[in-house]
């Protein structure tokens, strides 16, 4: 390819929309990752410009690494289950028209004395040629995937992938790999070696000491303290699921990009290690198939974090198989600067929804002016500005479905969009702010999705919705008649005065629109919001006078 192109993964179900819409020039590829705990397959279309669309996915958990610590061989039953799964995957890939099926095996097959015999059997029964990866190759593929999904262009990063049999670490600076590390610290391997079915507190303590000593020997501290940490693999997607559930974020469509505070990793680990496997099955966000090995996986994660000392870690829903897909497709992700991937992703999503760009940009501009003037006093945090900006740009994407109730359509479209660089928590908030730019105000008694969120998140949504409603009102006619807004805190009121663009003939509709949508902002700040016209008079709108203007 003449220039590197960032990965764009569009998810789909088993009956995904991409089966029937392969574009001319697309190449359909299947990638299979044969791990110690699970086997995963992706079938995807790769376009000539590097765009990758997921057609289908399949997963199985034969646990090839079971008993490997004790016997050094792959057991018969896991091998049988693995081959049955691979037959199904190969059949699906061929039926979907995959031109190439790339299969790789990792720790369990690499370490087993009968690994080569297993690979031979796989080829005989499935027709698949399986390539066995060394640990450093696994780490590089995990990094390649992270590079496609996170902004690693500035500073240092540690990408860690915890599989069933091993831990892979990729250390990078300014988006370039400096060191690759592979250690035998997989969740399944360590569970069998140290914890068994009913681990005790002293067993977990012994396990952590073992991990700590290995990491200290391998991971240099001087250059990597405080680096950004990204975790891929089932340990991290389950950790993110548990964390989001504890935050009331059950509406999040994906756990990808969830940032989990370091202290929360320790809290979740402490909670789970005191539970039996049966008790863990009741924990929201934890996959049943991971319940027996999650403690070992989290212990590894906790020790890496203790060594690097970041503020938090970002969970990635993509890992080695996505990196493999990129490698096979010869797609090299661009090294994205902070905010670049997110801005591009939000804009492209808006364009796919055929949004009205002039109006959306105008509302975005006015909303940010209001935020800069009143946000801090209203209780907004600096990071809320980016959320408001995205919500303002996307608030009307619901028109793509229907005008009637378009704000609710906007909510669902945003919530289920693939937005790179945006955490699940941020995406849920953006969706809600877009939902409440018009119509009913946020109400925890009437709106279930809103009610399930924690109190602090609900407050953020209210504040940002209040600002967005006024900004949207200031472009009620969709003609961008206002150049800027001037805000002045009076003793007993908040006064907002719009300044028209030079060619504006009248601001009558804009003044009316902002005034009638200021009620939520008034209640939040506790004083009247006065929308002031060019004549210096406060606007007093009446919906009865202008029924056709009600949105």
Structure write-up:
It contains 21 helices and 14 strands. It folds into three domains: 27-132, Nucleotidyltransferase, domain 5 (2-Layer Sandwich); 136-319, Exopolyphosphatase. Domain 2 (Nucleotidyltransferase, domain 5); 340-549, Hypothetical protein af1432 (Orthogonal Bundle), CATH 1.10.3210.10. The chain starts with 26 loop residues before the first strand and ends in a 20-residue tail after the last strand. The protein is elongated. Helix 6 (187-195) crosses helix 11 (294-308) and helix 15 crosses helix 17. It is of the alpha/beta class and 551 residues long.
Number of domains: 3
Task: Provide the spatial order of strands within the biggest beta sheet.
Answer: 8-7-6-9-11-10
At CATH level 3, the topology of the largest domain is: Hypothetical protein af1432
CATH superfamily of the largest domain: Hypothetical protein af1432
The shape is elongated
Q: Termini, distance in Å? A: 48 Å
Oligomerization: single chain
Q: What is the class of the largest domain in the CATH system?
A: Mainly Alpha
Gyration radius (Cα, Å) is 26 Å
- State the CATH architecture of the largest domain: Orthogonal Bundle
Largest sheet: 6 strands, mixed
Percent strand: 15-25%
Q: Tell how many strands the DSSP assignment holds.
A: 14
With helices defined by DSSP (H or I, 4 residues minimum), what is the helix count? 21
């Amino acid at each position: 390819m003449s220039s590197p192109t960032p990965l764009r993964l569009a998810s789909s179900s088993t009956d995904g929309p991409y089966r029937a819409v392969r574009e001319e020039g697309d190449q359909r590829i299947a990638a299979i990752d044969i791990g110690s705990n699970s086997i995963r397959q992706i079938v995807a279309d790769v376009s000539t410009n590097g765009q990758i669309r997921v057609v289908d996915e399949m997963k199985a958990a034969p646990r090839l690494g079971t008993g490997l610590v004790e016997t050094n061989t792959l057991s018969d039953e896991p091998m049988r289950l693995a081959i049955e799964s691979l037959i199904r995957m190969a059949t699906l890939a061929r039926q979907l028209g995959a031109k190439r099926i790339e299969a790789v095996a990792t720790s369990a097959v690499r370490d087993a004395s009968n690994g080569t015999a297993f690979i031979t059997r796989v080829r005989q029964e499935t027709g698949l040629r399986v390539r066995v990866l060394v640990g450093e190759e696994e780490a590089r593929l995990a990094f390649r995937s992270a590079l496609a999904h996170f902004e690693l262009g500035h500073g240092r990063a540690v990408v860690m992938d915890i599989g069933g049999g091993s831990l892979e670490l990729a250390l990078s600076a300014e988006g370039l790999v400096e060191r690759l590390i592979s250690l035998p610290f997989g969740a399944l391997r360590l569970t069998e070696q140290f914890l068994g079915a009913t681990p005790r507190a002293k067993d977990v303590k012994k396990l952590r000491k073992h991990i700590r000593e290995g990491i200290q020997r391998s991971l240099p501290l001087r250059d990597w303290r405080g680096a950004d940490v990204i975790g891929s693999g089932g340990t991290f997607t389950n950790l993110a699921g548990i964390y989001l559930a504890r935050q009331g974020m059950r509406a999040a469509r994906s756990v990808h990009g969830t940032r989990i505070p370091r202290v929360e990793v320790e809290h979740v680990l402490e909670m789970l290690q005191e539970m039996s496997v049966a008790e863990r099955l009741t924990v929201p966000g934890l996959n049943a198939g991971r319940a027996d090995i999650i403690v070992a996986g989290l212990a590894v994660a906790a020790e890496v974090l203790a060594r690097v000392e970041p503020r938090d870690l970002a969970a990635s829903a993509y890992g080695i198989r996505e990196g493999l897909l990129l490698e096979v497709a010869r797609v090299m992700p661009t090294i994205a600067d902070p905010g670049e991937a997110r801005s591009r992703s939000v804009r492209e999503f808006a364009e796919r929804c055929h949004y009205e760009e002039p109006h959306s940009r105008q509302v975005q501009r006015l909303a940010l002016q209001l935020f800069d003037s009143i946000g801090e006093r209203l209780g907004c945090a600096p990071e809320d500005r980016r959320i408001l900006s995205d919500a303002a740009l996307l608030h009307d994407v619901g028109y793509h479905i229907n005008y009637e109730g378009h704000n609710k359509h906007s909510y669902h479209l945003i919530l289920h969009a693939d937005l790179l660089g945006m955490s699940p928590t941020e995406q849920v908030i953006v969706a809600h702010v877009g939902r409440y730019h018009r119509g009913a105000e946020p109400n925890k008694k009437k709106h279930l999705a809103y009610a399930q969120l924690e109190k602090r998140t609900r407050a953020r949504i209210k504040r940002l919705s209040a600002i967005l409603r006024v900004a949207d009102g200031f472009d009620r006619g969709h003609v961008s008649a206002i150049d800027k807004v001037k805000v002045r805190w009076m003793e007993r009121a908040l006064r907002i005065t719009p300044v028209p663009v030079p060619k504006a003939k009248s601001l009558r509709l804009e003044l009316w629109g902002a005034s009638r949508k200021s009620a939520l902002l008034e209640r939040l700040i506790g004083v009247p919001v006065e929308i002031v016209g060019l004549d210096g008079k406060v606007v007093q709108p009446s919906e009865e006078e202008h029924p056709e203007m009600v949105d």
